[in-house]
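Lecture 7, part B: from sequences to assemblies.

Below are the input chains for today's worked example.
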Amino acid sequence: MRKFCEHCLKEVNCTYGERQKELEYLNQKVKFLEKYYICNNCENEFYDDLYDYNIKAGNNELRKLSGTITIDEIKEITQKYNIGKKPLSLVLGLGEITITRYLDGQNPTKENSELLKNILNNPLLYEIYLEANKYKITKIAYKKSLGKTKQIEMNEDKSKIYNIALYLINKAKEIDSLSLQKILYFSLGFFSIFYKRKLANVEAESWKYGPVYKDVYECFSYYEYKKIDYNELLTNKELYLTKEEKSYLDTMLEFFGCYSGSILREMTHLTDPWLNTRTGLKEDESSNRIITIKDMDTYFEKIYKEYNMKSIKDIKKYSDDLFKEAQRNLFNRKNK
Ligand SMILES: [Zn+2]
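Predicted structure of the full complex, as structure tokens:
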């Protein structure tokens, strides 16, 4: 191995070594793994390119001792919330390169150290900062970070709707955010009628692109029109779903998962719960009005009776009819 020996003042052949090194801080001792070289020429020790590593490693242990946030913990924040150094600085209302400097070894102020520690342990607090300062970072950086943060929160809460979404994404393999929202809508709607209980106790908002479960939307919106990649998502080993629920969702995927997002959007536009909340709005007008559970139950109960449904397999006739009508509407609109 050839490195620059500071004693010989030239590149020399040398041997690499590691040892426990002790540091003292306010009468307390900490150890870290020191790395060094021994010069084959003069037999002295030197550091050359290991100098930065040793400073950081020692400093990191001293920080732990004093209760200051460590470099590793700051790195953990950027990974946990899927955010770069610069955007993180901006989101937290710090100078643009503050986090970069901390990662390079500069000690944070006590105040910033406390803030960073709180942020690391509290996704909800992070989300508040992210929302407040989102205009300071790019839209895609915001969506990516919000998505990861929402996934953490919903995973920690064992959120039912999140687990349903995960199941559908994994099972469908190729699904985008728009299709997912519409399949959730039909799944939640019919489940209550067939099983006399809620699949998940959440209400959709009535967006111009159809019904949207906002928390779920925020989890995956950074994929935009791309397929959601299950392997990138934050998941538990086990999903909080019963066998019955899983098998029901399989059937819903069979009847609704075969259509594109734009056809599914058109299909939801034909259903009463969405139409009722759109009263007085123009076709392309944004809205976050709530689609009530009552409206959902009334509509899906009506369909259940109209189609004389006996089992969930009978939903197929409805999805076929809805598809045909949606297709006609799309065709007519294009040819107007
Ligand atoms: Zn030497």
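Note for the exam: Residues 5, 7-8, 12, 39, 41-42, 44 surround zinc ion (CB under 6 Å). Keep this in mind when comparing with the next example.
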